[in-house]
């Protein structure tokens, strides 16, 4: 993605996905990475820019890293039971029912998306 050329996904998003003023503002204020993510989310899930920011969880190096950060954020690791915590099962459960990931065409990491 360059400053002067638009990818096929960006063009599709601009043509079909910018539904309201908020979508246009979100797209215009995004950096190159943000535009790429919005375009990929529209291409994969038909989410407009204003919708995608509710489900987009960021780009992560791996699903394991995302799951470990989420476990820490929700306080699972602050209890006495944390020594029994199974990260692999936690990650598997999260990505079986609540989250999905795909390769980010801009940065090469994984785009993590929460199902709504």
Point out poorly predicted stretches: none
What average pLDDT do the residues reach? 86
Biggest sheet, strands in spatial order?
Answer: 1-3-2
- Described by the principal axes of the CA atoms, the overall outline is elongated
Number of domains: 1
Rg from C-alpha positions?
Answer: 16 Å
Number of strands: 3
List keywords for this structure.
three-stranded antiparallel beta sheet, elongated, alpha+beta, single chain
Describe this structure in words.
The protein is α+β, with helices and mostly antiparallel strands. A hairpin with a 6-residue loop joins β2 (99-103) and β3 (110-114). The chain is elongated. The chain has helices spanning 8-17, 21-29, 32-45, 49-55, 63-73, 87-97; strands spanning 56-60, 99-103, 110-114. It is built from six helices and three strands, in the order ααααβααββ. It has one domain. Helix content is 53%, strand content 13%.
Brief synopsis:
This protein is α+β, with helices and mostly antiparallel strands and 116 residues long.
Describe the SSE topology.
Layout: H1 8-17, H2 21-29, H3 32-45, H4 49-55, E1 56-60, H5 63-73, H6 87-97, E2 99-103, E3 110-114
Antiparallel strand pairs: 1-3, 2-3
Helix pairs in contact: 1-3, 5-6
């Amino acid at each position: 993605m360059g400053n002067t050329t638009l990818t096929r996904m960006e063009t599709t998003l601009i043509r079909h996905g910018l539904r309201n003023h908020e979508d246009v503002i979100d797209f215009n204020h995004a950096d190159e990475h943000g535009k790429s993510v919005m375009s990929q989310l529209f291409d994969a899930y038909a989410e407009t820019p204003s919708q995608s920011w509710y489900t987009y969880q960021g780009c992560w190096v791996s699903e394991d890293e995302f799951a470990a950060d989420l476990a820490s954020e929700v306080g699972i690791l602050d209890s006495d039971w944390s020594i029994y915590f199974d990260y692999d099962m936690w990650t598997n459960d999260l990505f079986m029912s609540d989250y999905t990931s795909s390769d980010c065409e801009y940065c090469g990491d994984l785009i993590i998306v929460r199902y709504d």
